[in-house]
Amino acid sequence: MPVFAMIWGKIFLEEEITESMIFGCSLILLGTAITNDLFRGFFSKKLNEN
Asked: Can you give the pLDDT at residue 27?
């Protein structure tokens, strides 16, 4: 949703999209993806099955 808020502000309120806004948006989306287990197995330890 933060992406849509930035687009809405750009189109209707003529706000400038800054680098910090893009960084903050990507940080929110990354945190949401990690929380919802989108990167399943990427951040988990692999157990030795021997």
From this structure: 93
- 3-7 long-range CB contacts below 8 Å, 24 or more apart? 3/29
Token couple for 50: 């021997």
Q: How many helices (H) and strands (E) does the chain have?
A: 2, 0
Q: How far apart are CA 13 and CA 9, in angstroms?
A: 5
- Rounded Cα–Cα distance for residues 8 and 4 (Å): 6
Element (DSSP H or E) covering residue 33: helix 19-35
pTM for the complete prediction?
0.63
| Strand ranges, E, within the chain | none
Q: In whole angstroms, what separates CA 30 from the centre of its chain?
A: 3
